[in-house]
Design goal:
4 helices; alpha+beta; three-stranded antiparallel β-sheet; 149 residues; four-stranded mixed β-sheet
Length: 149
Amino acid sequence: MKQFKTLYEASMWNYIYKKNKGIFYRGVGRGGQGTGLGVLGTGVYLTWSEGMASAFAKRQGAGGVVKKYKLKTNLKIVDAGGLTDGDKDWIETKEMMGFAPQQHAGNDKMFANMLSMMLEEKGYHGAVSDDVATGIVIFNKKNVKEVKK
């Protein structure tokens, strides 16, 4: 019988970070505000798609712009897919909050704050979704630096 090497699941975050060389985008309105999404927790929401960031900027009305950001290396980001063993911390945290992995409380600020706090206690700097519109949240803005054109 032929022996196969063990295949380890690569982190979605590591793949996205390397593919984009640490560069991500954010659609903001006047004053630099986002849309107030809190599905992954509180913090700075980014996406790996400049087109998606543009759609968010347009939702902000006149004056909406796309900004480009560089993220610090070696950030610990939880995969928020909630479907594999690699998402164990996400699954456990959501379960403690009374939610299934894919459930959320919409734009409820208390939910978002609690989710961020619980994940930070586990050593995470943010969370990443497999959905380009939900994207990535980085809990502390000190881990995000705007790239000036």
